[in-house]
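Project standup — Tuesday

K.O.: blocked on the structure for the chain from last sprint. Re-posting the sequence here as requested.
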Amino acid sequence: MLLVENTKLALNSLIANKLRSYLTLLGIAIGLFSIILVMTAISAIQSSFESVFSEIGSNNFVVSKYPAVRMGDDRGKYRNRKDLSIEEGMKLKEMTSLPTYVGIYLSSGGKVIKYGNEKTNPNVSIIGQNLDAIYSNMLEVSEGRMYNKSDIELARPVAVVGSAIVEKLFPKLNPIGKTIKIDNDNVEIIGVFKKRGDIMGQSRDNFLSVPYTLFRKYYGDRMRSAQFIITARSKELLNQTSDEVIGALRTIRKVSPGKDNDFELVTNDQLVQQFNDITKYFKLGAFVIAVIALLASGVGIMNIMLVSVTERTREIGIRKALGAKKIVIRTQFLVEAIVLSLVGGAIGIILGVIGGNIVASLLGVPIHVPVDWIMIGLTITSLVGILFGVYPSIKASNLDPIEALRYE
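H.V.: unblocked you, prediction finished:
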């Protein structure tokens, strides 16, 4: 009951001194707003990216010429590596026994797809794959069919397209069986991929897949380095499978003993970790800004509470004369400081969550509520209220009742 009564007194004090209270609340709110805004936006983006990374699969990994993230001076080192080739992928499949699938994956971007008088923007990706890559990527066809072994062996001019291409070129038509033009080459649509949605405002359905043999026929030596998508039999065998793949690929590419691999293995966990490594600096920066703002606000709380003690000296004297103990007076002013801090923090958190999700929606990722950071924020604001409310509360409780009653 004492806590409830002190909370009511604290709220009445805030209302009685509106301008002074608002200015103090503003400082606390800004501090919490800054960190919750950043954490909400980053958490929403991170959640969206992790859902994309998870598409690699827990028992899959990718072998590529480049690492997932390239930084500064290392770019030249990776660029000078020999490209991964289709032949190396085929040899890798023959030399390994642990992988369930060894997918071969080739891609080229910036393509314009035409159908009659209609055409897409020059941002479509064309992908050449073998059947193992299709199985590893767990690509689903919503209409028509996926190309088969015969299509690959004969390099038939067939394609399975993403839903974004269908929406652009065939808004009112069934695309199956229609012939589209890629550069100057005609390709028949035999299937449509299931819609995957957008991330960061970018469509993941703006692509088409063709047999890798057809891709090579069209682009020949102009193709970029291939990627190999490896599926282990289980997550438990992932490390053993990757070791076997590394050993076989080093042999295929004639990497001398003692030298570093001239290729990269990328797993889902590595992608998540690398993303976290990048975002941790943004989180740290937001945390430092918030701490500075909260410390400044804490000083403001202390000043307000000291002013409140001075203004209410006579009230304190009367309460002590009527038998109020020191701990009662101390608790009253300490609760007022905590309530002041928590109200400001709650405002900052609400605005931060709203602002962070506005940023997330503008980037095209799902909204997110960072419950962990909300709890951290409330804890920090409570500590600020306690830390900077202790001295004024002690000062109030130590007032001499006789001197306090004489105070005018």
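K.O.: great, moving the ticket to review. The chain has two domains: 2-52+273-406, 58-266. The radius of gyration is 32 Å.
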